[in-house]
Amino acid sequence: MTVPNHFELLGTDGAARTGRLTTPHGVVRTPAFMPVGTAGAMKGLHWREVRDAGADIVLGNTYHLMLRPGAERIAALGGLQRFTTWNGPMLTDSGGFQVMSLAQLRKVNEQAVTFRSHIDGAALELSPERAIEVQRLLGSDIAMQLDECVRLPADHADIERAMQLSLRWAERCKRAFETAPDGYMLFGIVQGGDVPELRHDSARGLIDIGFHGYAIGGLAVGEPQEVMLAMIEEAAPILPADRPRYLMGVGTPEDILEAVARGIDMFDCVMPTRNGRHGLAFTQYGPINLRNAKHADDPRPLDEESDWPSTRNYSRAYLHHLVKSSETLGAMLLSEINTAYYQRLMRDIRAAIAAGRFEEFRLRTREAWERGDLPPR
Amino acid sequence: MTVPNHFELLGTDGAARTGRLTTPHGVVRTPAFMPVGTAGAMKGLHWREVRDAGADIVLGNTYHLMLRPGAERIAALGGLQRFTTWNGPMLTDSGGFQVMSLAQLRKVNEQAVTFRSHIDGAALELSPERAIEVQRLLGSDIAMQLDECVRLPADHADIERAMQLSLRWAERCKRAFETAPDGYMLFGIVQGGDVPELRHDSARGLIDIGFHGYAIGGLAVGEPQEVMLAMIEEAAPILPADRPRYLMGVGTPEDILEAVARGIDMFDCVMPTRNGRHGLAFTQYGPINLRNAKHADDPRPLDEESDWPSTRNYSRAYLHHLVKSSETLGAMLLSEINTAYYQRLMRDIRAAIAAGRFEEFRLRTREAWERGDLPPR
């Protein structure tokens, strides 16, 4: 049976693509960056700011939400979109990645992964079937298959075992998803570490099963950027051109630009908010560290050309003071400024692809980052 | 020389008063509650939310700001109103209260208080003259005299000594303030602990010196509410009816209602934001503790009759989840909800006084608080 397609490719420029993905809670313009609302909230941001920044879709973490407040509870409260008041498209991960990174006493077998909650130590099991059930209870517009992600570097045998297990789990996830209502989507995840042949095998195996879209997982887990880009170059061309492609957990603005150039449509990362909490601002001049003492007396805004009010209206001196004083407002403003910067980058990327000027845009953007920040006054 | 008066009394109802205080950065409607922007920021709030909530004036803490980022630096950056982007009226305390509560190795003598910074241990001195100089550098619309505040209970002799010292410092502050530009104000502070005669002496001494307005200090420092209200009853009637009266560091919604009934015009307190960070919401039903498990499955908002969107639009279940998960958004929303509640209370108080129905309003408001929260569903 053919899997329905909710993705419309609007234009390409080289390998770069722009399109629209229609979900039950609205349309997502691609390439899209999904801000991460870990446990049903964006850290330091109001939902209206996420919307105003231009995000069409956000990501929720199944692992966090299944532990607290619980998937059944969120279902009874009308689903994650309504619970959070976001009311727009949401993608959830499968929980697998965070079971690997956060949970205690983790054991993977053919059937499932068992672990203990990092909150209260409760013994829990996440099977492919339960991962789908939880995501359907949450009401995710886009659910992800359960997979096993191996941290790099790793042995070939380990990478292959995890990739094959992920393929078998992909099939079980697909079956568990069969009764989902029309319009909801399930993405398979290409694994295979840094081994080209395993990436090929994984992609082909997933295509045989058939998904609404395809993710590339197991990257941005410690490998150099060249390896990440090489693996995208191995996997992306194999994936069906008419389906969305999502690079999980990526990344810096430069990672995104380079991955778009290689045919990726969707991204997610905690970097805008996490780095914001640590005093780092993303700008057209590259990253700016507001902890640096050179900002203490600087009345200039981060970027007076920005169309985002907070980027234009707060002085570097004030942001520096807030960061040095650990004032919540510092984390709030920089998280908001970074979220807006990422969304602005995606908007510019989409426009450049649509206009057939992506390569020029990519070079100009990289040049501005490399030129760096304004000279001190 | 007569001290100019920038306060206009618009109406009274019993001892309760409503008026307007004109500052260089705008008009303050009284009775007014000043949210506390400790170190140049409201904890968990954007400035636009403070404005939208209806606050006309905010308070900055001289002690925090003189340590970091420094008064001279803020002056060079255009003053505290511009530095923070608040751009509205600001009152600063003298720094004395926080020297007493936060600084190390504090020593008071006739000349000044010496102490060590709680941030880096630097040895510092705060004299009446320096307290005024710092506040003028910050550009406060309303500066406060340096005083010595005694924590209650305390010996009569201690209270009297501190009160007399505060009077001598009041005089020095007044002299130091003489060159301030027109429109900027200096308030004296009535001390005297819980001793009526000392409160009288303090108030009369300050009136002899002459200030733009008068504060009542040294309350809400551990004494029962009856003592606080009794001391207001001793001091307020002595103070000039045509000058604003400010009760420092107060308080709960009930404290405010009762103090307004006794002729107070201005308040400040960290309670809306501090209690918000701890999961407590102020509502027309009294305080609601969002940590309580009974909210976990409750889809109802805190108060569907509220005119503040966040009070109406987020479910108790979501707020409970955010608080239990220590999500920043929980602190942000409850700080905002509480700030809006306090400002709504002040607006209603002003309207009730203007309409000559303050006593009826006071009883009705207290009844609603005492009835308590809605029954569980």
UniProtKB/TrEMBL annotation, chains A, B:
It comes from the Bacteria. Residues 15-369 form the tRNA-guanine(15) transglycosylase-like domain. The keyword tRNA processing applies. Keywords: Glycosyltransferase, Queuosine biosynthesis, Transferase, tRNA processing. The active site is at residues 93, 268. Substrate binds at residues 93-97, 147, 191, 218. One of its GO terms (biological process) is tRNA queuosine(34) biosynthetic process. GO terms for cellular component: cytosol. Residues 249-255, 273-277 are annotated as: RNA binding. Pathway: tRNA modification; tRNA-queuosine biosynthesis. It catalyses: 7-aminomethyl-7-carbaguanine + guanosine(34) in tRNA = 7-aminomethyl-7-carbaguanosine(34) in tRNA + guanine. Its EC number is 2.4.2.29. The keyword Manganese does not apply. One of its GO terms (molecular function) is tRNA-guanosine(34) queuine transglycosylase activity. Belongs to the queuine tRNA-ribosyltransferase family. Catalyzes the base-exchange of a guanine (G) residue with the queuine precursor 7-aminomethyl-7-deazaguanine (PreQ1) at position 34 (anticodon wobble position) in tRNAs with GU(N) anticodons (tRNA-Asp, -Asn, -His and -Tyr). Catalysis occurs through a double-displacement mechanism. The nucleophile active site attacks the C1' of nucleotide 34 to detach the guanine base from the RNA, forming a covalent enzyme-RNA intermediate. The proton acceptor active site deprotonates the incoming PreQ1, allowing a nucleophilic attack on the C1' of the ribose to form the product. Homodimer. Within each dimer, one monomer is responsible for RNA recognition and catalysis, while the other monomer binds to the replacement base PreQ1. This is Queuine tRNA-ribosyltransferase.
